[in-house]
């Protein structure tokens, strides 16, 4: 049944059957420009690390797919298929419900940041709603960090996604993200100021 549903920069994502269960299989592709030994090592580390993050954040109340099987040597993760609606699509179909889910996304991101986990790619394509519950997917770029800068960049990335992909929903959508984040994290004055600094740096960066 294996069906390719997404070809990412580092991995292919398949819809498949595993022991009679509909699953998602993520397979990291070899990099032809790396030495074979180095490539195997990096794929092994990144596969194990991603599976670890997907599992770890559950302890903080962040919903993610169940991991069924990991083969670091093949760069393969088999996980639960979250058959739902991306927040990216939900904002077009039911904006009010989309805003509620963005509030939940802000809360989930803050829960991760409270435990010094940076998602790395918090976009509306990586938030899935199933039965009114929000799931985070794709932890391929996740890492640990205590730095305010890294947490700011994570939230800033989501802000930029809202501006570029959902401009008509930006004001209320981003406000809900911030409100959800604050409800968990507490005061985020320093974080918001740092996001403004990131935007100033981007605005005035000299061209190459």
Please describe what this structure looks like.
There is one protein chain. The protein has 208 residues and is of the alpha+beta class. Helix content is 47%, strand content 22%. The strands form 3 sheets. It has a 5-stranded antiparallel beta sheet, with helices on one face. A 3-stranded antiparallel beta sheet has the order 6-8-9. A hairpin with a 4-residue loop joins strand 4 (67-71) and strand 5 (76-80). Helix 3 (95-114) packs parallel to helix 5 (170-185). The termini are far apart.
Layout of secondary structure:
Elements: E1 3-7, E2 11-18, E3 21-28, H1 36-56, E4 67-71, E5 76-80, E6 85-86, H2 87-93, H3 95-114, E7 117-118, E8 127-130, E9 133-136, E10 143-144, H4 148-165, H5 170-185, H6 189-204
Antiparallel strand pairs: 1-2, 2-3, 3-5, 4-5, 6-8, 7-10, 8-9
């Amino acid at each position: 049944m294996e069906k390719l549903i997404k070809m990412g920069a580092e991995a292919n994502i398949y819809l498949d059957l595993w022991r009679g269960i509909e699953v998602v299989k993520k397979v990291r592709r070899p990099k032809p420009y790396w030495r074979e030994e180095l490539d195997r090592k990096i794929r092994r580390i990144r596969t194990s690390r991603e599976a670890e993050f997907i599992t770890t954040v559950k302890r903080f109340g962040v919903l993610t797919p169940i991991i069924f099987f990991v083969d670091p040597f093949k760069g393969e993760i088999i996980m639960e298929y979250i058959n739902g609606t991306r927040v990216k699509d939900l904002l077009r179909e039911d904006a009010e419900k989309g805003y509620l889910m963005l509030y939940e996304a802000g809360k989930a991101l803050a829960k991760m940041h409270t435990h010094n986990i940076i998602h790395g790619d918090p976009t509306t394509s990586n938030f899935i709603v199933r039965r009114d519950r929000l799931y985070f997917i794709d932890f391929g770029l996740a890492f640990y960090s205590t730095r305010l800068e890294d947490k700011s960049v994570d939230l800033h990335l989501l802000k930029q996604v809202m501006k570029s992909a959902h401009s008509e929903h930006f004001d209320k959508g981003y406000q809900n993200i911030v409100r959800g984040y604050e409800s968990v994290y507490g005061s985020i004055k320093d974080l918001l100021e740092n996001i403004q600094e990131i935007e100033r740096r981007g605005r005035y960066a000299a061209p190459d």
